Each structure stands twice: as C-alpha cells, then as structure tokens.
Amino acid sequence: MNFAGKQMQKSSSSGQIKRQYSDNFIESTFNNKWLQSAGLHHLQSSNTSVPPLQDFGFYGDNVGGQGSRVGISLQRGESKEEPLTQPACSRSLSMRKTGNVEGFSQSELSPGLLDLHSFDTQLISEVSSKRSGSSQNLVLHGMNSNDSDPFSPSNKSTDSEQTTNVAKIKVVVRKRPLNKKELAKKEEDIISINPTMNSLTVHEAKLKVDLTEYDERHGFTFDAVMAENVSNDDIYSVTVEPIVPIIFQRTKATCFAYGQTGSGKTYTMQPLPLRASQDIFSLMQGTYRNQGFQLFVSFFEIYGGKVFDLLNERKKLFIREDGKQQVCIVGLQEHRVYNVETIKDLIVKGNSTRSTGTTGANEESSRSHAILQLAIKRPVDGNESKPPRMVGKLSFIDLAGSERGADTTDNDKQTRMEGAEINKSLLALKECIRALDNDQGHIPFRGSKLTEVLRDSFVGDSRTVMIACISPNTGSCEHTLNTLRYADRVKSLSKGNSFRRDPSSLISNLRNSVVSPLSSVVPDVSRPNQRQTPASFSNDRVPSGRMQINMDIDDRDYVEEDYGRVNSPWTTDKRSDRSQTSTLGNNLRQTSRQAKRRDLSNMDADNDLKSLLKEEEDLVNAHRKQVEETMDIVKEEMNLVANIDQPGNQIDDYLSKLHRILSQKAAGILDLQSRVTQFQEHLKDTKVSESSSSR
Ligand SMILES: Nc1ncnc2c1ncn2[C@@H]1O[C@H](COP(=O)(O)OP(=O)(O)OP(=O)(O)O)[C@@H](O)[C@H]1O
C-alpha cells in the first residue's frame, strides 16, 4: 500500500486531522534539507510552526515500504540544526555548529545574489591621496626591495606607479619534495633548479635505438622557480604579497595553482588567503583606518561544469548575465569577516564540504576547481544600510588536476565529459589571461564556467599570478613537462614576451631552423603530443633561439596566425633559398590547412559538448519542474481523497477530477521520459573524447 493509502486508512477516524495532515504532510515532509539541495528550496514552507508528522501519530510503528521512507525523510527534515529558509539563517546556525566562528551576525551575510553590479567600483581618490607608503604597514616576508622586480612594492612610489609596477602576469614554479611513497619506490628526483637564474631543468630518461639510456634535458625559465625547501611564507612573498596593496586601488587579482594531482596545489594555495587577509586587515587597521573598508569571503567549487557554494552546504549556484552583461552568481553567499581566524574556519569548512560533498575525497577534489574570493568593499557614501560596493577582489583558484583534462579516452562517458570540461576550462583560462594581458577589448570568458565566474576578474585593471606545481619524481615526468609547457605559454602571453606579435622574430627563427629538415621544426599536427627533439638538450621556452611548435595544448594558433604573417615576406624574399622557402611555405600552408581542419573538428566537438551540457542542464531543470508539479498534484489529490468522505460530495465530480489529475501526471511523466531517452541517445552519439584528446 502506498503512503497515500496508509494515510487514508489512518485518517478515517478523523476528517479534521486528515485535512490538516494533507497540508502539513506536504509542508513538513518537504521542509527539509534535500529540497534545498535539489534546487527546490522555494517549495519550503515559511510556516515553521507546522507540527511534525509524528505529532499526528502516523508511521510511528511503520517499518518498511514507502511509509518508512517518508518517515526517514521527515526526521531529517526536522533537524533543528539546519533550517532551510533564509541563507542568513542557515549560515548562522551552521556557524553555531562549528562553534568557534566569531564576529558574525545574520545581517553580515551579503544577499544571495553576488552583487557584481556593485562592481562599478567607486573612485577612491581620498584614499589614494592618504595612502602613500601603505606597504610600510605590511609585514614583508623575505622581500628585498629590488627595483627591477616588477612585483617588488616600492614605498616611495605613488599609487598609480605602484599599481603599474606590478606585472600583469607572473608565473612561478614550485617543486614539491619527493614523498615517502616515491622514496620507497626509489624514484629519482628529475628536476634540477637554478634559483638565481629562475630556471629549472627536467631530466627525462630516454632510450636510444640501441636501447642505451640517455638523459634528455628540457630547460625552462620563469619569473621565479621555487625549490622543494622553499616555505609557504616565501611563496606568499613572491606571489600574492605585492598584489595585496593594489587591491585597495580597484584592482582584481587572480592567483591560481596549476598542476597534476598530488603536485601540491592545495598545499600551496591554502595558506595564501590567510596570509593575504592578515595583510589586508593590517592595511584596513593602519593606512586605511576609518575608511570603511569591509572584507568579504566566498568559497565555491566548479565540478562537472556546475557551480556549488562550499559555504552553504554545496548549494547549487547559477550563473546569470543581466542586461548590462554583468555576470552574477545567483545565490552565492559572501561572509563578512573581521579576523583571520574566521577566514580560517570558513576555509576549513569549505574544504571539508569540498571533499565530503562527493565520494572519494581526493579523487573528486582533483576533478573540481575550488575558488576562494576575498572581496574588499565599502559602503556607498558611508551609508552602512546600503549594500556596500566592490573596491577590489583577490581570487584564489585551486584548479582541478591538469591531467584530468586528458581523461577522455579510457574512461566512462561521465569521466570523459568531466575531463573535456576541465580541459576546456584550462584552455579558456589561458585565453582570458592572453586577452587581459593584451588589453584586448573582448575577453573570451564564455569559453567555460570557470572563466565565466571569473569574468569580473578579467575586466578592468587585473593581475594574474600562476603557480605551476610540479612533482619531482620520474613517474610524473610527462605531466611535469605538460605543466611547465602550459606555464611557459601563459608566460609567453605576457607583453614582455613579444614573440607572438613580432613577425620578424618568427621569420628569423624560421630562417635559423631551415638548416634542419622541416620535419624537425614542424611536428605532425595530427600527433599532438609528439615532440621532435633533434638535440639532446631542448629548451622548451617558446621565445627561445629556435622555433618550437608544441601542439599538445593549443598552439594551433601559433601555426595559423603566424603563418598568415610570414607568408608574404617569405614569398618575396629573393635572397633566401627559394626552393627551401617555398617547400617550407608549402609545408606551413599544409600545416595551416590541417590545423584549420582540426580547429573545425574541435569546434564541432566543442559545440557537441556545449549542447550536451546544456541538454543535461535542461533535463535536470525539467525534472525539477516535474517534481514541483507532482507535489502540487499530490496536494490536490490528497484534498480530493480527503473530501470524498465528506457528506454531499459527488462521486462524478470526484471521478472527473481524478481523471484530469491522472492525465496530467501521465503527460508529465511521458514528457520527461522522452527527454531522458533523447538525452541518453545524444550521450551515446556524441564523441566527447574527440573534443579533448585532439588538442
Ligand atoms: N611543498 C611541499 N612540501 C611538503 N609537502 C608537500 C608539498 N607540496 C605538497 N605536499 C604534500 O603532498 C601531498 C599532495 O599535495 P596536495 O594535496 O596539495 O596536491 P594537489 O595538487 O592539491 O592534489 P589534488 O589535485 O589531487 O587535489 C600532500 O600530502 C601535501 O602535504
């Protein structure tokens, strides 16, 4: 017997209780946490005085069957610890649960809609004029005031000088030590570092045709290279510390850690917001005392292309764009904080949600991007009752394990889709960094959910710090090289590296390279990971003396764009060896055509993935809507069955209403069922793997 039947049986003793139950049942049953997690929180009852179902004496002795399941959900729903209603309420209670979070009151939680409109950052001229020497108030760790270091804060400089002195993009590499497991397996450390030159070498063990071993060395140079003995404090000094003061000057900055799983991204990223907030509070209490600045924290995760609030029970968040093309993360909670301890607690809370929200903690965390944002705001015209306006923002991103982008062939569909999404977001991130460094009007933030949510960090005055985390062991060699190549490309996007914009340097690189057969400088684009290394030592840095075209991530554009530029000089250059140049030209043309074809096929695959994700989203929304409608129908049905016992009720009326209700239910189910079948078919047909593996 279903639960409605049981309810009819039990309720036959009292029509009054029965009716009360019909309403209260719905309200109390669904007034619980899973309504919220299913995105149906709007169905929660605002009437908290509704007595729980047990008060009616139903199901108390019920074991098994649907009735018992309902009973379980009721018990969960009545948890006094976790009310469902207003976000502020749920936050303050969850804070109470963790016990040691200070300095909060409900009013201090910002509205559910992340107020990106407030991004019309206010002019803070009065602050600027009082601000000279702000860095004196900062405890600088291990910083020497090297003027040539673009990240070195200068006490004497003006605000605008200080802002412009901080490089737009900084790329830092951090090597972690060998861990116990690697030591036990007697794995070798294959990374040697020259800290004074900010360079490192990867020693890749290779076999010759005669099976003798040789060491292929790959050299890289970055803004900073940190060895395994470097502390988190030093990492902070080099990466985020110089940026903190300029956050008060309407700058948005993003610091992200990139690397394979287990390479130390979380280990590196976790202390940074704490150190940064320490310095932010110092500035707020020192240089900016009485200026009304406020600090807010939000923490969310992007997993499988969906956004979840890590400080609000993994509530699913939606990204919306308003008429002014401002992106809003609808429902994201921002917590106003007054001390570092509180931030620490929030980070602990967010991280535990991140890892326990899904099964297999580390496995899952490495498949998601975690984003912690510190936003500095100020009340408009000093009016505390109005929502404060954003002044500047620091985003810390612990990216998904970079190797996950390659999870595209051997796994199940779900894993492949996630891998493709991760790959897409890592590529999109790089494109956005490129655009922001070029001061490009158009920032391709729509490329992925990750860049969409970071949109406001890519417009206006922005700074980006990338920390490439690498594992030192032999077994990680390939991933380490991939990480370093990605980092190298991010660095080469920087204005200081004009290789991409300077056709003459490309031409001279090509001329230098013609002494080798073309195949040694232009790899086969159809085999993206194949690297041609004619010499045993290869410098992987792109703007080096010879041309390197790595096709493993997205250097299709190197070929396409650069070919377009060099075509004319090459064909008119009479001094050079015409036959060689025309062969080279033909080969480049062919390469370009291949790349174009591959681009088109990648675009198709990308579109497939995009429409698949959209269809998935639509399906879940349709399901949610169907659940809502079902609940209305159940409510109506309950009223119907409750009323049929009333004297004077007509069976004809009952039957016609029942008929309508059942038809409505059937239509809803059929519609959803056909959507499910259609989606399953699309899922089967779409070659998700191609979208990523071909890159
Ligand atoms: N620089 C370091 N010094 C000492 N231990 C480190 C360092 N970097 C990482 N570790 C240790 O290595 C392990 C893996 O690090 P971590 O969890 O930060 O990796 P991750 O890149 O974030 O992995 P995932 O992508 O799977 O989340 C941890 O036990 C961490 O403590």
From TrEMBL:
GO terms for biological process: microtubule depolymerization; microtubule-based movement; regulation of cell wall organization or biogenesis. Residues 75-94, 130-164, 517-604 are annotated as: Disordered. It comes from the Eukaryota. Residues 144-157, 517-527 have a biased composition (Low complexity). Residues 552-561 have a biased composition (Acidic residues). ATP binds at residues 259-266. The keyword ATP-binding applies. InterPro entries: Kinesin-like_fam, Kinesin_motor_CS, Kinesin_motor_dom, Kinesin_motor_dom_sf, P-loop_NTPase. GO terms for cellular component: microtubule. The keyword ATP-binding applies. Belongs to the TRAFAC class myosin-kinesin ATPase superfamily. Kinesin family. KIN-13 subfamily. This is Kinesin-like protein. It comes from Lithospermum erythrorhizon.
